[in-house]
């Protein structure tokens, strides 16, 4: 993926396109390339900004999902953004939800796809194991409806992260903090419009999670993508982009 990562102060981020700002929040193992199709489709009409969250660089004692939300708060304030759209996948959706409870006035709307925050099954019945390639390959494949979407390049990238002891420890810390931070009681206080785009075959945040989000969020729309797992913007990008474009137009964003 040919992208330019900008560095400004303590922040690193991708910044492409022009127009209303969409802040994109990646997941635990979500490379920026996961959003290539989103960038290509929406870049002509929107300014897409993807901050690199410091999942693997925060002090271990501070490595938790609340501090990721505080980091995003600092980033948005530093950039001088106001009234942005925010799109989050998986852990990124959870960070977006926490941010919205902190600074709801800064958001026009929230778009969630495969978001944690209620229930997630990130590693099945166990946490990732260092230097176990077959385990990592199976876990990455578990993310998708079609296991072929888990390319060797993608598996190698996740394997490289989890082969680093420091990054492995932080991955487990973040995953545990996300599980502990259940947002069921907070969701009714999020009054901004929320678009839920969910894979019908998501094994990590299953369909009942999307239904509970839809029930508890006061102003939400829920869209399903069939034959699709936990990362619709990767596995079914054309349908994901079509649904999101329709929703943005319907809501006049």
Low-confidence stretches: none
How many beta-strand segments?
A: 8
Based on CA atoms alone, the radius of gyration comes out at 17 Å
Strand order of the largest sheet: 1-2-4-3-5-6-7-8
Average pLDDT works out at 91
Q: What structural class do helix, strand and pairing data support? A: alpha/beta
Strand content: 15-25%
CATH hierarchy, class: Alpha Beta
Shape: globular
The CATH topology name reads Rossmann fold
Total count of helical runs of at least 4 residues: 9
| Assembly form of the protein | single chain
Alpha-carbon distance between the termini?
Answer: 28 Å
The helix-strand sequence is: EEEHEHEHEHHHEHEHH
Topology:
Elements (H helix, E strand, L loop, with lengths): L4 E4 L2 E7 L3 E5 L10 H7 L4 E5 L13 H15 L4 E6 L1 H12 L4 E7 L19 H10 L9 H11 L2 H16 L13 E6 L7 H10 L3 E6 L6 H4 L1 H14 L3
Parallel strand pairs: 3-4, 3-5, 5-6, 6-7, 7-8
Antiparallel strand pairs: 1-2, 2-4
Q: Care to give the gist of this entry?
A:
The chain has helices at residues 36-42, 65-79, 91-102, 133-142, 152-162, 165-180, 207-216, 232-235, 237-250, and strands at residues 5-8, 11-17, 21-25, 47-51, 84-89, 107-113, 194-199, 220-225. It has 253 residues and is of the alpha/beta class.
